[in-house]
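Propose amino acids for all 327 sites.
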């Protein structure tokens, strides 16, 4: 059984409620039908009343359709959103307009108010739109104090990682993380890997250097991040700095990093910047025919997930299942 199938099965047992704000996208509707039919999660669709006519699933007891303009507690949500944003100059009138018209913000506020367990968006919005909704409405985990976007990757017929399963991070949020942020991304990614797979994470901080084979400011930043990550989570299996072959290939690791218990066995890959992370996940997805679930947004006290605007129905289903498992 693939890890994706395992996550869907775990989600069924959880019975969580997930918000999908993009009911105006046909892929969201098709995904909702599948999710309801297979009881992967309970769904709140944000949209107009006529959305119900598009749903083919008979399992309507697990579906709620909410039109923000008609929602009974919309004034309370607007008031709470105003309190969150007034320091940024938002007026009560702007807050009221936003929660009625911006469905991602409204959906995120439902999660904040414990009316749902998480949200998934991005099918027809940018990553910036989805992350903005989460940042404005959800609480950030103060222990780590960084937000990042990771991908669960499943590479077919691969001997590396956890039988081809990895977490790649950060692939969606931080363009140039500093050492403290990079450390937090490593710790969050390790926790996410264990949460989704049930397997122990082995975290590799990646670089163009393996254990001092090269020098430079970028290498120093990765070394500092490793030290900080070990301070935050001393019990996690974390090491670096590694070139990617040192992190993944046992034969290479024996030559370049013989003393490391992570080298050659890494299943969580932490990239030094957004360029390398985003490029790497897309190359792996396209050239190795890998499944890529995410970006799974990390660092909030409630789970949420972004989607690529090029996503398909399965991508939405998998993001919902992963979000439900994390809830």
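Proposal:
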């Amino acid at each position: 059984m693939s890890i994706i199938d395992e996550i869907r099965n775990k989600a069924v047992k959880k019975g969580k409620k997930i918000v999908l704000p993009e009911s105006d996208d046909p892929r969201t509707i098709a995904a909702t039908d599948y999710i309801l039919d297979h009881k992967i999660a309970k769904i709140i669709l944000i949209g107009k009343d006529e959305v119900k006519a598009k749903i083919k699933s008979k399992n309507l007891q697990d579906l709620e359709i909410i039109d923000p303009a008609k929602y009974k507690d919309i004034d309370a949500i607007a008031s709470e959103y105003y309190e969150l944003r007034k320091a940024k100059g938002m007026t009560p009138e702007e807050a009221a307009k936003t929660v009625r018209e911006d469905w991602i913000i409204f959906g995120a506020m439902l999660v904040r108010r414990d009316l749902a367990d998480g949200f998934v968006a991005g099918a027809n919005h940018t990553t910036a739109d989805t992350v903005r909704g989460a940042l404005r409405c959800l609480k950030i985990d103060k222990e780590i104090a960084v937000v990042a976007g990771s991908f669960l990757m499943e590479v077919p017929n691969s001997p590396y990682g956890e039988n081809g399963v990895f977490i790649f991070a950060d692939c969606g949020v931080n363009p140039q993380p500093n050492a403290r942020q990079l450390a937090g991304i490593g710790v969050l990614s390790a926790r996410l890997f264990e949460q989704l797979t049930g397997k122990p994470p082995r975290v590799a901080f990646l670089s163009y250097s393996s254990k001092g084979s090269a020098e430079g400011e970028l290498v120093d930043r990765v070394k500092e991040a490793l030290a900080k990550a070990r301070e935050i989570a001393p019990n996690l299996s974390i090491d670096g700095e590694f070139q990617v072959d040192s992190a993944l290939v046992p034969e290479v690791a024996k030559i370049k990093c013989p003393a490391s218990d992570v080298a050659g066995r890494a299943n969580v890959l932490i990239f030094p910047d957004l360029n390398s992370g985003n490029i790497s996940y897309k190359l792996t997805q396209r050239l190795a025919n890998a499944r890529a679930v995410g970006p799974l947004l990390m660092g909030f006290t409630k789970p949420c997930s972004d989607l690529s605007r090029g996503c398909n129905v399965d991508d939405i289903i998998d993001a919902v299942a992963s979000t439900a498992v994390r809830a």
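The domain at 3-139 is CATH 3.40.50.10950 (Rossmann fold). The mean pLDDT is 95.
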